[in-house]
Every structure is written in structure tokens, then in C-alpha cells.
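S1.2 Input.
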Amino acid sequence: MEDEKFIQLEKDNILRIGIKDSNGNPTGEHLEFDLEDIELPIKYKQLLIEDKQNKKWFRDETLIIDKRQDVKGEYLSKNEEDRIKAMQTFLKKEEETYNLFLGENGVKKLLNGRKLGWTSLESIDKLIEKQILPYLNLTMDNISQKIKERYSKAVEKTKKVLE
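S1.3 Output.
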């Protein structure tokens, strides 16, 4: 189809952040953020809210387990087993929560195939705060400025037409 026409946006405004393994070698994986997605701050806020809820759930669950009478088992006591199951549920909830912001399988990409653990969450929090949020905050300011500029130009044009 030689006469087919194509169009393309000038700039895609996608932030791609490459991921390295523990040895500093690129894995070929990356996280992508649409820098013009005005829902990014809302997604981040949701991550913070759900993270707090997940931690409260886990704390409450372990308090309940600790107050129950323990029963010895062959390898683990009943309470030890229940604590492990609660931690598994907590980590699954946290992975889903972080993926809301990082994108589909974002946590798995960051962990390079390892399972999510308590210390992994702390590392991911630091990474988001120091290496992702600065780009997104700058961009949200830029988007706000672009919106102001665009609409101020539209208002000026309207004023000229009315004069």
C-alpha cells in the first residue's frame, strides 16, 4: 500500500529506566512511565495508602497469632506456620500494590527473578524515592506549566478576536 499515510506524535514522553542486576550488569528489563500521565501522582498516593494498610493488616494478623495458644508441630509450631503464611500473604499484597505504580510485573523486573522479601521492600522504596520520583515531580511541574501556557495563549487569542 504505497499511498498509505502515517502519522506520529512528535515526542512520546516515556521515561524508560533500565534495570541492573546485583553485579551492576544490565538485565535488558526496564520500567516505563508515561511522563504526561496525570494519574501518576494519584497512583503513587494509592501505593502509599495501600502500603500502610497492608502493613497494618500484617501487624494485626501477627498480634492475633501471638495471642493464640501455640501447638507444636513436626517441623514448625502452628503459630510459626501461621506467621509464615501471613508474611506470604502480606508480600503478595505488597507486590500487587507496588505494581500499581511500577507497572505490570514491575517488582519482578526490579528483583531480577528473586522473591520479594522484607528488605526488598525497603530497597524498592529508596529506589522510587531517589531515582524515579525526581523525574516525575519535575515532569508534573512541566505539564502544569505547559497547560498554563497553552490556555493563556488561547485566552489571548479569544481577547484579540473579541476586540
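S1.4 Remarks. The chain has a mean pLDDT of 86.
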